Amino acid sequence: xxxxxxxxxxxxxxxxxxxxxxxxxxxxxxxxxxxxxxxxxxxxxxxxxxxxxxxxxxxxxxxxxxxxxxxxxxxxxxxxxxxxxxxxxxxxxxxxxxxxxxxxxxxxxxxxxxxxxxxxxxxxxxxxxxxxxxxxxxxxxxxxxxxxxxxxxxxxxxxxxxxxxxxxxxxxxxxxxxxxxxxxxxxxxxxxxxxxxxxxxxxxxxxxxxxxxxxxxxxxxxxxxxxxxxxxxxxxxxxxxxxxxxxxxxxxxxxxxxxxxxxxxxxxxxxxxxxxxxxxxxxxxxxxxxxxxxxxxxxxxxxxxxxxxxxxxxxxxxxxxxxxxxxxxxxxxxxxxxxxxxxxxxxxxxxxxxxxxxxxxxxxxxxxxxxxxxxxxxxxxxxxxxxxxxxxxxxxxxxxxxxxxxxxxxxxxxxxxxxxxxxxxxxxxxxxxxxxxxxxxxxxxxxxxxx
Length: 451
What we know:
Blueprint: H1 2-48, H2 57-71, H3 79-89, H4 98-111, H5 119-137, H6 141-160, H7 163-172, E1 175-176, H8 184-200, H9 218-251, H10 258-273, H11 283-290, H12 299-312, H13 320-338, H14 343-359, H15 362-373, H16 378-391, E2 402-403, E3 411-412, E4 426-427, H17 434-450
Parallel strand pairs: 1-2
Antiparallel strand pairs: 3-4
Helix pairs in contact: 1-4, 1-5, 1-6, 1-8, 2-4, 2-10, 3-5, 4-5, 5-6, 6-7, 6-8, 7-8, 7-15, 9-12, 9-13, 9-14, 9-16, 10-12, 11-13, 12-13, 13-14, 14-15, 14-16, 15-16
């Protein structure tokens, strides 16, 4: 009896402890995110007062890159990647200087027309504040790691207004195929508290209108599976373009300060010769697609290119807002080709399916679809997200994400290492597999044809 009582008291004390800790993280992240979003809105308004504001991109990117290199190198790139790296390699230890530097550098990049997102900085700001809180509380490394994961969740939840999906994203994005259940409760608390703090301070979130969904039938089911496969392939394209952009700029034989000047010049070229819709956050295009407007056929490609240039040359920002843009455009184009009656529905599903594939977070993406578009979209979004997650294979927009599972028993790859260092999977045929049956049948047909 005494042992049972001790167990229950200990568990209850743990719930109280993490309720307090996670609430503090949520409060800090809510305040930090509100400050970031207001700074971004004000700075964007100043830039927008100039007709061709994007012509300042070379200088803007140079200032942003210089700030990060000189003051906080850990703030480089898209923030979530650096936080994942800190969680796995340094038990969540993040220098506090990252917070103001990341905020200023990202505001400059986005307001000036750089193609990036706002969630990565919020995740990194949240994680940095959580790490600072851990220093004040003098907690053990294991608890520091939990607090930083709560910061990721709260940052995602607060910037997009999706507290449940934000909590799930923080515990799902760290390891491909695994969920950190021991951090699930504090992540929910941090995400919900951060969201309510931000809304109490005046942050508002767009609410996409309910879209017309197709009747769930055998044909519709196949359409959704195919849409998920397409989103998985587009995720692969985005991941490879991001790698290519970083690799090219790193190998240029000159001083690093020339990279943002070149990147800014290339972005100006896209803005003047193609469209300015592919610069900045691109929220207007996302909203148009979700409302059922027809988007240009090349929208997904050009947004991938401008994002690769912006982050590859040293710009600061996240990657998820571009993913939402690319996913919306992909679903929109798919609807134009397959079923134009459901432009809005397929755009919504494409948006979350591309997130599931690029970040390997199908659960968070499915829940996000329900939070943004209503529960009626759940079966469509869940299927598309899972298919996209499987099709993308062992790749991720976050190279520091650890590989936790094998997506196919016929593809062997070492687990427990970062996705970016795991190499290519090795095909190992088994006795009874569909692939082997198809290859055997094809070989037999070829032999008969030759005879």
